[in-house]
User: Which sequence fits this backbone?
C-alpha cells in the first residue's frame, strides 16, 4: 500500500488524498474514510490509477454521486476512485448522445430534453451520476437507462480500455452485469426526436410526483430495498409495521416506507441493523425475502 501511495502521490499531486472522509460524499451523510483516494479527470488518468492499484494488488472502488451507498463506519480499504469534471461533458449529435460518467444524471435529462430528444425523462429527480446510473440500471416511472444505452466505454480491472455494447452488459432490474472491477468513463445513448414542450411537461409532472412522495427533509439513499416481482417493497414494509421504526438515529421514513433517513449523526451500523430487522419482519409477515437496493460497501 505504501508503494502505491507514493506512486499515486507523485502522479496525481493534490488530486490524491489519504484517509479521505467519505460521509460528505454520500447522500446518506454516513461512512468512514478511504485509505487512498484519487480524483481522475480523463481516461488516461483513470487507466493509470487502475493499473497502479492492480500492480500493487490493492482493491479499487469507484464512487459516483454516492446516492445509492451505505459506506461502513470503518470506511473503505484500498483505493477509492472518483471521476472529476474532466469526465463530465455531454456531446449531442442528432439523436446520438455521449455523456461522461461523471455527468449528473439530472443534468443529462435536462440537456437532452432541451434539445428535443426523448427517452430519458424518467430520470428526472434520480440523483447521482451517469456512471452510477448505468451500474444501477437506474429507472423510475416505467423507464430505465438500459433501454436507451448503446455503448459503454471504460477501463477493466487490469487497466485495459474496453467498450461494451448494450447486449454484452446484460441489464436486469437495478443491475448491470459489468465485468468485475470495470470502471465506466463514458456512456452512449440513442434517443428519439421529441417535442421539447411535451418532454418538459412530462418532467414537471414527474418532479411533482416525486415531491409529493419522497422525504426530502433528511439525508437518505433512495429506496432501500428492490421491489420484488409483482409487488412493492414499500407496501410490504408498511404491512410489516416498519414505517417510522427507528434504531439510534436511523429511521424508516414516516412519509415513504421504503426510505431510511438519517435523523442526524446516524451510523452505518444502525442503518444496517434496521435493514436486517426490516428484512426479517417482512419475511415473517409476508413470506417475501426483500433484496437490498442500497449497496453496502467498505469494511463491516
Ligand atoms: C432521493 C433519492 C431518490 C432516488 N430515486 C431513484 C429512482 O427513482 N430510481 C433509481 O433507480 N434510483 C434512485 N435512487 C438511487 C440512486 O440515485 C441511483 O441508484 C443512482 O443511479 C446512483 O448513482 P450514483 O452516481 O450516486 O452511484 P453511487 O451511489 O456512487 O454508486 C452506485 C454503484 O455504482 C458504482 N459506480 C458509480 N460510478 C461508477 C463508474 N463510473 N464506473 C463503475 N462503477 C460506478 C459504484 O461503485 C456502486 O457500486 C435515488 C436516490 C436518492 C437519494
Assistant:
Amino acid at each position: 500500500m505504501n508503494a502505491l501511495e507514493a506512486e499515486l502521490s507523485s502522479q496525481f499531486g493534490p488530486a490524491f488524498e489519504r484517509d479521505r472522509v467519505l460521509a460528505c460524499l454520500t447522500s446518506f451523510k454516513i461512512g468512514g474514510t478511504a485509505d487512498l483516494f484519487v480524483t481522475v479527470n480523463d481516461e488516461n488518468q483513470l487507466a493509470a490509477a487502475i493499473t497502479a492499484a492492480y500492480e500493487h494488488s490493492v482493491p479499487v472502488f469507484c464512487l459516483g454521486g454516492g446516492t445509492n451507498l451505505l459506506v461502513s463506519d470503518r470506511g473503505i480499504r484500498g483505493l477509492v476512485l472518483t471521476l472529476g469534471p474532466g469526465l463530465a461533458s455531454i456531446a449531442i449529435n442528432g439523436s446520438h448522445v455521449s455523456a461522461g460518467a461523471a455527468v449528473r444524471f439530472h443534468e443529462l435529462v435536462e440537456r437532452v430534453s432541451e434539445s428535443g430528444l426523448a427517452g430519458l425523462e424518467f430520470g428526472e429527480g434520480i440523483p447521482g451520476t451517469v456512471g452510477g446510473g448505468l451500474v444501477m440500471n437506474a429507472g423510475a416511472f416505467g423507464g430505465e437507462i438500459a433501454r436507451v444505452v448503446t455503448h459503454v466505454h471504460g477501463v477493466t480491472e487490469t487497466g485495459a480500455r474496453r467498450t461494451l455494447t448494450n447486449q454484452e452488459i446484460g441489464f436486469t432490474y437495478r443491475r448491470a452485469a459489468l465485468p468485475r472491477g470495470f470502471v465506466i468513463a463514458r456512456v452512449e445513448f440513442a434517443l428519439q426526436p421529441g417535442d421539447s414542450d411535451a418532454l418538459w411537461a412530462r418532467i414537471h409532472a414527474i418532479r411533482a410526483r416525486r415531491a409529493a412522495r419522497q422525504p426530502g427533509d433528511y439525508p437518505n439513499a433512495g429506496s432501500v430495498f428492490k421491489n420484488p416481482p409483482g409487488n412493492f417493497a414499500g407496501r410490504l414494509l408498511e404491512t410489516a409495521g416498519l414505517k417510522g421504526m427507528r434504531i439510534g438515529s436511523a429511521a424508516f421514513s414516516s412519509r415513504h416506507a421504503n426510505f431510511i433517513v438519517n435523523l442526524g449523526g446516524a451510523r452505518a451500523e444502525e442503518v444496517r441493523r434496521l435493514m436486517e430487522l426490516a428484512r426479517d419482519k417482512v419475511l415473517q409477515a409476508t413470506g417475501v425475502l426483500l433484496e437490498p437496493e442500497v449497496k453496502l460497501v467498505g469494511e463491516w
